[in-house]
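Hello again, I could really use a second opinion on something today. For a while now I've been wondering how a particular protein folds. Please have a think about how the structure follows from the sequence. Here's the protein in full, and shout if anything looks odd to you:

***
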Amino acid sequence: MLSGSDTVLILAGVSFGIAILLSLFLFMAYKFDSFISRKLVNRIPAIRNFMLTMKEGLNKILSNPSALILSIVLSLPIWFLEVSGTYFAALAIGYPINFSLAAVAGITSFISQTIPVTPAGIGVYEGTMAGVFVLFGIRYLPVFPWRWSIIS
């Protein structure tokens, strides 16, 4: 285990629970796509096309397990470089952090970019990274320590 911190263990457990729920929801949507489409088509007219596209994509993934394995194998080095970059950047500016904290911050920030909060995800990665670090007690330092003032 990389860290014995209670916060890391709680976050890992919650993250695992969310991953299980999302997988269950995806399975339910795959199995009951026509039922879901019939029930929601009046409120969400595009649901039928969305469900068909999702089912088609999942069928393609399931019909080509070697491509799925290849994508996982190719993703692992990217995730490792993402986390390592965070870890070494923190060390370079004088914050000796655990690798597990860098992993939580890096992975959370990387995944948070998929949520369309801002145009092109600008600032979402950095904000999530800062939020995770603050959550773990690393002191926040503003980029510009002086006060901004248009009118003196």
Q: What stands out?
A: The chain has six helices and no strands.
